[in-house]
Amino acid sequence: MREIQSALDSIDLLLFATSRALCSPFAVFVQIQGYVICLLLAAGWAGAAYVRNREVRQMRKCMKDGNPFAFLSHDIHALEHLNQVNLPGVTVVMPLKGFGEHNLHNWRTQLTSLYGGPLEFLFIVDSTEDPAYHAVSRLLLDFKDDVNARIIVAGPSTTCSQKVHNQLIGVEKMHKDSKYVLFLDDDARLHPGSIGALTAEMIKNPEIFIQTGYPLDLPSGSLGSYCIYEYHMPCSMGFATGGRTFFLWGGCMMARNFISMHADDFRTDKHGIVTQLSDGGYSDDMTLAAIAGAHKRLITSPPVAVFPHPLASDLTFSRYWNYLRKQTFVLESYTSYVNWLMNRALFSVHCYLSWGFVFPYTMAMFHVAAAVRFHFKHNFAEEYILNPIGLKLVGGLFVVTTIELLSMWNLTRIEVRLCNMLSPEAPPLSLSAYNWCMVFVAMVVDNFLYPISAIRSHFSQSINWSGIRYHLRNGKIHKIDRTMEKGKKFSDLAAKRLYGRKAQSKISILGSLSRSLANWRQPKKYDV
C-alpha cells in the first residue's frame, strides 16, 4: 500500500511541477498564441458566413419580388428562351475511378443540370474494367437521348497522375464549339443552376481565368469523416470570398476556351498549361493555381459555388490518414522555383499553426489534472502548490474554443441553408446531423496529425492514390507503380465497390422540368 501511495505521490509531484512550468512566460505566450489562432479562425469563418448569407438574402429577395427560379438566376428574364438559346457551349469533363455509394446520385445531379445552352458530358475512365465504366453505362441508358453524354477510355497514364491524364484526354475529345470546360470530380454534387451560374460569371467578366467552388462536407459519424470536415473548413475561407481568390479546388474548375484542344491558345500551349500538366503533373488544381499566380490571371469563386459532399458511411480512420497524406503530398509537387518557395512557405506556416493550435489543449490537460488532484490532496506541502494562472489559462482557452466552434457552426448552418435553397428538389440537408463534440475532437486530432503527415510526405516523396503509387523527383512524377492497383478496393472518401445498388430517382417538378428542358435543348446538341 505504501509503495502504491509513494508512486502516486511521485506522479503528483511530476504533475504539479509540469503545471507550474507551463505557467512560465514562454508557456503563457504559447497558450495566448493558441487563443489568437482560434480567434483568427473564428473571424475567417464569420467573414465567409457573411458572404454566403448575403447570397441567401439576395435569393430570398428575388423570390419575394416574384422570381420563383432564383435558385437558377437572380434575373428571371435571363431564363427566357431568347436568352437561353444564345448561351455558349460547355463541356463537362469528369475523370472517374471506381464506383462508390454516392457516385450514382452525384452523377445524376450533374446530368440533370438546368443549363440552357449546348452542353456535353464526358465521363473519362482509364479502362473498361473500371467499375465506374459499367455504372455510368447503365446510368446513361436511363437518360438515352435526353443528354449529350459519352464515356471515353483514356488508357493508363505514363507521365502524369491518372486524374490529370483523364482530364487532358477529355479536353482533347471535347466538342470544337465548346467555349468553356468544366472539370468535376465524381464526388461533386451539383445544384440545378450551378453550371449556369458559373457560366454567367465567365460571361460577365472576360478577365476570369478559372472559376472554382468548394465542398460542404457531410460527416457520416466516424472520426475520420469529421477530421476531413474539419480539414476542409479552414480552407473554405479562401473560397467564400464572393469573388477573387488565390485557391483552386480540383473538384470544380471552369476554364475558358484556352483549355480547348481546338483553340489557338491551346495549340500554342499558352502559359505552358498542357506541358506542365502532362509532363509529370500530379495535382491539377495546384498546377493551375501556380500558373495563374505566375501570369497574374484571375481566379474567382462565386458565392453559390458550394456543393454538398456526403462522406462515406464506412470511412475509416486509415482512409482519412491516406487522404491527409495526399493533401500534404501536393505541397511536394511544383512547377517552378517560385512555386517551390510558395509550397515550402505553406508547408512551414501550416505545420506551425497546426501544432500552435494543439499545444494549448495539451497544456490545459496538465492544468486541469493538477487542479483535480489538488482538490483531493490532503498534503499541502510546497511541492503541491497549484499556480492559479494555469486555471485562468484553461478558462481563456474554453472561451476562445467556444467562440471558434460557434463561428464554425454558424458558417455550416448558413451553407446548409444555401445548399437547400439552391437544390429545392433534393431532400433537405440538416445541421442536426453534425456532432459538435466530435468536431472538437477532430480539430485537435487533425491539427496534430497534419505536421506528421507533411513531414512524412516530404521525406517519402511517394504516395498511393487509388492503388497507384506515384514517385516524385524535383516536384514532378518520374515513376508510376501500378503493382498495387488490383489490390486496392477502396478510395479515401468513399468505398469503391465493384457493384453498387442502383439508386431510384424520385419524380419531382424540377426533375420533370430538367427533362423538358433537355428535350427543348435537343436541336442544339452537338453532332458527335
Brief overview:
The protein has 528 residues and is an alpha/beta fold.
Structural class, from secondary structure content?
alpha/beta
Based on CA inertia axes, which overall geometry fits?
Answer: globular
> Termini distance?
86 Å
Average predicted confidence as pLDDT? 84
Helical fraction: 40-55%
Topology, number of strands: 13
In percent terms, what proportion of residues is strand?
5-15%
Whole-angstrom Rg = 26 Å
Physical arrangement of strands within the biggest beta sheet: 3-2-1-4-8-5-9-7
Q: Helix count, per DSSP?
A: 16
**Low-pLDDT stretches:** 257-267, 495-528
Family: Belongs to the glycosyltransferase 2 family.
Pathway: Lipid metabolism; sphingolipid metabolism; Sphingolipid metabolism
Protein name: ceramide glucosyltransferase
Subcellular location: Membrane
Describe the structure.
The chain has helices spanning 2-21, 25-64, 81-84, 103-111, 131-143, 162-173, 194-204, 223-236, 264-267, 273-278, 284-294, 317-329, 337-375, 388-422, 436-460, 509-520, and strands at 89-95, 119-125, 148-153, 178-184, 208-212, 214-218, 244-245, 252-255, 298-300, 306-310, 462-465, 468-473, 476-481. An eight-stranded mixed sheet has the order 3-2-1-4-8-5-9-7, with helices on both faces. The chain has 16 helices and 13 strands. The N and C termini lie far apart (86 Å). The chain has 528 residues and is of the alpha/beta class. The radius of gyration is 26 Å and the shape is globular. Belongs to the glycosyltransferase 2 family. Its main location: membrane.
